[in-house]
Specification:
This protein has 573 residues and is mainly alpha-helical. It contains 26 helices and 5 strands. The chain is elongated and about 105 Å long.
Length: 573
């Protein structure tokens, strides 16, 4: 989130930082974060804490020896070194940047000569968890410790010197230096009184005062929208009064919705994430967190959803991670709007983000998807069927099976997938309707599901199907599926039918004979009974080599299945 007190290291003419220097600066801050957490989690005499302290002292010392003062610019969730990000954490509870920023600190300087106890005091204070009603913030605690080699600048320091200040002759304090910076920038000749700042807080060099001057000049060029957003978010973070907090939540939500509707996508996404982070922040009272839900739900209006969908379809501005995060922020109250939004998104990779979110949000509310099953756009119907299949809630059965006769095969495929996934006993009876489907792939899948689910009620209709004239013109794959289903569902009573297929002679039609044997063997393999095996063994002695080879392959398949059953975890265990 942009900050109205932008970091000193982002001044337009700040020196470039080399890769080695940046790498060393990053190692220092990451080691500080690790050590700060360790001080919070373990006793001071813990060997792990001692190891971390030794490491951070060594790394900071090396940096100070090579590059001089270690200067950190603090944003809301980021820490920067000479304008380059070296740390980021958007978890307000864990983020070192957020803790410092929340208490008003905008800039830190670690000077050469810093001692171990100073560094430990600083990391202990920054990492310490304090109750919300505790008066001693980080600034107060650091001031009390009076750490001579640690300098920090507050947001209010910038504001206190917004215009030139009168300086008494002979003044040489750090306060004089800061006042001089703003005096050289401001055109006004009127000098308000300068607020005194304790000497222990600011220890700026001449180089740093020049740097601060340039940062001020750059800050004046910032966009008004950045300023407004920064002010509003700062109010939400720091406001104690619940009534005022609620009023500003509504203001920020409305601003966010307007930004989204007007195409200011990046600003809107950042604000949505910010509000979502507040809603999950346990450092904020439960009452305040509850006040966020309603206004957040107003952001994703129909117009805003349309603009966001167009942006996704035409650019790469919104990443998959961005989309997933903001949809989770909108959450269950916005399921209907997200369903409509799904119908607008054209990119497959982004639909693959939206659908799992809807599955997650709609686990206990399948009825919210029912109205979209009659949408004129078949892809919307397909997507809703897909979602309901993944949820597999019994309450959706009647709504989904109404689509069995839908003209689009992709929709009927998802209906079949739903019937496969649901545990509702009644669902398997609807599989029979797919035996008359126009798609052979769907007919075959329905036969497979009937067989694997041991739906015995389907045996007679399937046998009847196999005896029709139309069946003889079906593809071999479908014929095989029919006889495999008969084998799985039937018992000894179907053996005569398989024997007839094996023994029947097709004079001058050898391919027909091979097809009949192939189908019979497939069905008997699925039966896997001793009687089925004996039938194949007996018939093999009456057939020629080519037919016998098909039968022997079936017997080998039976043996392989029997061996697999003896493995751990299988039914033969």
């Amino acid at each position: 989130m942009p900050d109205i007190f932008h970091g000193l290291n982002e001044a337009p003419e700040a020196p470039e930082v080399g890769k080695e220097e940046l790498a060393m600066a990053t190692e220092v801050i990451l080691t500080m974060v690790k050590t700060s957490k360790a001080l919070r989690m373990y006793l001071p005499n813990n060997p792990l804490v001692a190891k971390f302290i030794e490491e951070v002292v060594a790394r900071l010392g090396r940096h100070l020896d090579v590059y001089g003062d270690y200067k950190i610019d603090i944003d809301q969730f980021e820490l920067k070194y000479k304008g380059k990000k070296i740390y980021e954490s958007r978890d307000p509870k864990e983020s070192m940047a957020f803790r410092l920023y929340f208490d008003g600190i905008r800039y830190l300087i670690f000077s050469k000569g810093i001692e171990e106890h100073e560094l430990c005091e600083f990391l202990d204070i920054v990492g310490k968890e304090r109750p919300n009603d505790l008066d001693d913030d980080i600034v107060t605690l650091l001031w009390e410790k009076n750490l001579p080699h640690l300098t920090y600048i507050l947001a209010e320091d910038f504001l206190e010197f917004d215009t030139a200040g009168a300086v008494m002759p002979g003044q040489t304090s750090q306060q004089d230096k800061i006042a001089g910076i703003y005096r050289s920038i401001s055109p006004t000749s009127v000098s308000p009184p300068v607020t005194l700042i304790p000497q222990s807080i600011l220890l700026l060099t001449e180089e740093e005062t020049e740097w601060l001057k340039k940062a001020r000049e750059a800050d004046e060029k910032r966009r008004a929208l950045d300023e407004v957003i920064q002010i509003l978010t700062a109010i939400l973070v720091g406001e104690k009064d619940e009534e005022i907090f609620g009023e500003f939540v509504v203001i920020v939500a409305k601003l966010t919705e307007n930004l989204l509707s007007s195409g200011q996508i990046r600003y809107a996404i950042n604000l949505i994430k910010f509000l979502g982070g507040l809603a999950q922040n346990e450092q904020i009272s439960a009452t305040k967190r509850g006040m966020l839900a309603g206004p957040i739900g107003t952001i994703f209006s129909k117009e805003a959803a349309g603009v966001l969908a167009r942006e996704i379809n035409t650019s790469e501005e919104v990443s998959a991670d961005d989309l997933m995060e903001i949809l989770h922020v909108f959450g269950k109250p916005s399921i209907s709007r997200i369903c409509e939004f799904l119908g607008l998104v054209e990119k497959m990779k982004m639909r693959r983000v939206i659908i799992p979110v809807l599955v997650e949000l709609g686990q206990d509310r399948p009825e919210v998807f029912f109205p979209y099953l009659s949408d004129p756009n078949w892809s919307v119907v397909r997507n809703m069927s897909f979602i309901l299949a993944r949820i597999a809630h019994p309450a959706a059965l009647e709504a989904v099976v109404a689509l069995i006769s839908h003209k689009e095969p992709q929709v009927r495929k998802e209906v079949l997938s739903y019937l496969e996934r649901t545990n509702e006993p009644k669902a398997k009876t609807y599989l029979m309707k797919f035996l008359r489907d126009d798609s052979s792939a769907l007919r075959i899948r329905a036969l497979q599901l009937l067989g694997s689910s041991k739906s015995v009620f389907a045996l007679k209709p399937i046998i009847a199907l196999a005896s029709t004239e139309q069946f003889q013109d079906r593809e071999l794959a479908e014929k095989r599926a029919v006889f495999e289903a008969i084998g799985e569902l039937g018992e000894a009573n179907v053996l005569p039918m398989f024997q007839d297929l094996l023994m029947k002679k097709y004079w001058f039609k050898k391919p027909k004979e091979k097809e009949a044997v192939f189908c019979a063997v497939a069905g008997l393999v699925k039966m896997r009974s001793p009687e089925a095996r004996k039938l194949l063994e007996d018939v093999s002695s009456f057939k020629g080599d080519e037919i016998r080879e098909i039968i022997m392959q079936g017997l080998e398949a039976m043996s392989a299945a029997d061996r697999a059953d003896t493995l751990p975890g299988r039914r033969g265990e």
